[in-house]
Amino acid sequence: MKRFHMFFDTLRRNGLGSVPVMLGSIILAVLVGSCLLAPLIAPYDPRRATGGINEPPSLAHLFGTTGQGQDVLSQFLYGGLNALTVSFIIAILTTILALIVALASAYFRGWVDDVLTLVTNVFLVIPGLPLVVVLAAFLPPGSVTIVAVLTLTGWAFGARLFRSQALSLREREFIAAAEDVGESRWRIVMIELLPNMGSVVAAYFVNQVVFAITAQASLEFLGLGDGGQVTWGTMLYWAQNSSALVRGAWWTFVVPGMAIALTAFSLALLNNAVDELGNPRLKADRQLAKVGARRKSASLITPVLKK
Predict the structure, then answer these.
(1) What is the distance between the alpha carbons of residues 90 and 219, in angstroms, rounded to a whole number?
(2) What's the angle, vertex CA 61, arms to CA 59 and CA 65, rounded to 5?
(3) What are the beta bridge partners of residue 70?
(4) Rounded CA gap, 276 and 229, in Å?
(5) Count of alpha carbons within 13 Å of 115, Cβ hemisphere only?
(6) In sequence order, what are the residues at sequence separation of 6 or more whose Cβ sits closer than 8 angstroms to the Cβ of residue 43?
(7) How many other C-beta atoms lie within 10 A of the C-beta of residue 7?
(8) Please, how many CA atoms are within 13 Å of residue 16, restricted to the half-sphere of its CB?
(9) Contact of 39 with 77, CB cutoff 8 Å
(10) Which residues does 155 contact at the CB level (< 8 Å), separation at least 6?
(11) How far apart (Å, rounded) are the C-alpha atoms in residues 50 and 41?
(12) Beta bridge partners of residue 65, listed in sequence order
């Protein structure tokens, strides 16, 4: 019990026990937990018609039925499991790819930096949305295509962000000291550089999950996903196809829409805490606000005048 209290005391001191962070954690835990338990708690098969067409919420179907007579609650649970799994895979892959490019570019410099920076700039200037739509339209529909397309188009900004951070760390004394004692290049990158970029990497990863879940839903809503697979995006696609808005079947599009919005909202709340951990000025502003100070920490820095 003592360790339990010490754990939460540490979270509170670092800003992780604040109301927004706790609220974001609870919302995300409920969504992820319920979707993981979909095979156990979903009342029906999400693909089978188990009721009438566009039945409103009732005891038999708590979230109503779709235009094809399928249970919306079961689709919400299974659809969330698929959508969240794909989104986290995309976030992990884009973060790893961006880190590899950025660390290699910043540490080895020279022609390696020139080539990798050129490739990164090419992907940054390519219009992202048209490229995503074209690739998704020509490749076979399905989760693998969604992961491949969004990973290919989603890593470049992270590489530029990580490269700037790594270049700054590359000039610090502890890197020079590691080189002087004969540490290998890859050990310096993995042991010395990477751990010092933890807060930036964590914030980028959270943003990538939000990017992936909204981009995935957008592609599927446009009909570029696998219509036979149940996800939050395909639920919106079939609701549009069955004219749910015209027929007044609001539950068929409000449920997946709210699920996507709540997931993005909870991750945004958690991202604020991650930003604060990596930015001492934000942490100082929070401490000043607690004691009732109206001035920001930046205004308390003594200016230095150059002669």
Answers:
(1) 14
(2) 145
(3) 49
(4) 39
(5) 6
(6) 71, 73, 74
(7) 10
(8) 10
(9) no
(10) 93, 94, 97, 98, 101, 123
(11) 16
(12) 71
Coil, strand or helix at 49: strand
Residue 7 predicted with pLDDT over 80: no
The C-alpha angle 107, 112, 118, rounded to 5 degrees, equals 115
Max CA pair span of the chain: 81
**Angle ∠(178,184,188) on CA atoms, nearest 5:** 50
Q: What type of residue sits at position 305?
A: L
Q: Is the pLDDT of residue 275 over 90?
A: no
Alpha carbons within 13 angstroms on the beta-carbon side of residue 291 total: 9
- CA separation for the pair 182, 31 (Å, rounded): 48
Cα dihedral sign, 139-144-147-152 = negative
Q: How far apart are CA 10 and CA 178, in angstroms?
A: 31
Q: What angle do CA 294, 299, 300 make, to 5 degrees?
A: 95
Task: Dump pLDDT digits (tens) for 87-129.
Answer: 999 999 999 999 999 988 888 888 888 999 899 988 888 777 7
pLDDT digits (tens, 9 = 90+) for 192-235: 888 888 888 888 998 899 989 998 888 888 887 777 889 999 99
The label of the residue with tokens 């570019």 reads 105
Question: What is the distance, to the nearest Å, from the Cα of residue 252 to the centroid of all Cα atoms in its chain?
Answer: 25
DSSP state of 304: -
Token pair 């990798």 is found at 116
71 sits in the region (left: phi over 0; alpha: psi -120 to 50; else beta) called beta
Q: 49 forms bridges with which residues in the sheet? A: 70
Candidates 282, 158, 276, 273; CA nearest to 209 is 158
